[in-house]
From TrEMBL:
One of its GO terms (biological process) is amino acid transport. It is an enzyme of class 3 (hydrolase). One of its GO terms (cellular component) is plasma membrane. The chain holds residues 1 to 237 of 344 of the full protein. Keywords: Amino-acid transport, ATP-binding, Cell membrane, Hydrolase, Membrane, Nucleotide-binding, Translocase, Transport. It comes from Microbacterium laevaniformans. The gene is metN2. It comes from the Bacteria. Homodimer. Forms a membrane-associated complex with FtsX. This is Methionine import ATP-binding protein MetN 2.
Length: 237
């Protein structure tokens, strides 16, 4: 389990056109996410949600402010620490981002191959992960042979391969129908409760927040405009 703390995090992008003002994607965001929490982030398109996730997995560094994970400021990490950090953070996506030319097992094995794990360990771990997400029978299938829900379960198994303490989900159920969404949410709930993984999920679906999150963060124009328990925020008039 891991806790996350942003302190006055600001991210500014250079102007898109010459002479225009810089884009402030995140504007002085301070935020704490407790270890073991499921934190939902909502807000309109352009609110800064994806930028927030990219700061958490150190894909971007803030223009100013700090991003801490378990008390360590990751904006100051060197290459070695960043590699370690990336294994500690799993990520799942709206469009799944699977490798079409690799099998289900091959997709799940990928982060372990990158980490240089021994063959036997990979085989064992992949089998364990496929069992966890209920895809053992589909190990040798290719992504194009799978339903959307199955593809996202492969994405989840791959994200869990290195035993991360944090899982970041970017609109992970937005491409799925309601029944499949419930199935994926059930799996995420187990990952949180059984494995103790801290989850930060971006979504525009209120139902997803209601059914999974402990707390909600509402973003607008790069700022956190509201945060609190889901029940308090989403039942407000
Ligand atoms: P959301 O995920 O809530 O839709 P984003 O974090 O993607 O919001 O974007 C926040 C703002 O930052 C938007 O105005 C967007 O156009 C801008 N932005 C995001 N990424 C970049 C980038 N790489 N370069 C320039 N502007 C960006
Ligand atoms: P691809 O054709 O997708 O590249 P590979 O056959 O190279 O897939 O397998 C990728 C990895 O997945 C290997 O490390 C392999 O040991 C493991 N693997 C393959 N099939 C299974 C399976 N049924 N159960 C567990 N691990 C498997």
């Amino acid at each position: 389990m891991s806790f996350i703390r942003l302190t006055s995090a600001t991210k500014t992008y250079p102007p898109q056109t010459k002479g225009a003002a810089p884009v402030v994607a995140l504007d002085d965001v301070s935020l704490e996410i407790a270890a073991g929490e499921v934190c939902g982030v909502i807000g309109y398109s352009g609110a800064g949600k994806s930028t927030l996730l990219r700061l958490l997995n150190a894909l971007e560094t803030p223009t100013s402010g700090t991003v801490e994970i378990d008390g360590a400021d990751i904006t100051r990490f060197g290459e070695r620490q960043l590699r370690r950090l990336r294994a500690d953070i799993g990520m799942i996506f709206q469009q799944f981002n699977l490798f079409d030319s690799r099998t289900v097992a091959g997709n799940v094995a990928y982060p372990l191959e990158v980490a240089g794990r021994p063959r036997d360990e990979i085989r064992h771990r992949v089998a364990e992960l496929l069992d966890f997400v209920g895809l053992t029978a589909r190990a040798r299938a290719y992504p194009e042979q799978l339903s959307g829900g199955q593809k996202q379960r492969v994405g989840i198994a791959r994200a869990l391969a290195t035993n991360p303490r944090i899982l970041l989900a970017d609109e992970a159920t937005s491409a799925l129908d309601p029944d499949t969404t419930q199935e994926v949410l059930g799996l995420l709930r187990r990952i949180n409760r059984e494995l103790g993984v801290t989850i930060v999920l971006i979504t525009h679906e209120m139902e997803v927040i209601r059914s999974l999150a402990d707390r909600v963060v509402v973003m607008e124009h790069g700022r956190v405009i509201e945060t609190g328990p889901v029940f308090d925020i989403l039942s407000a008039p």
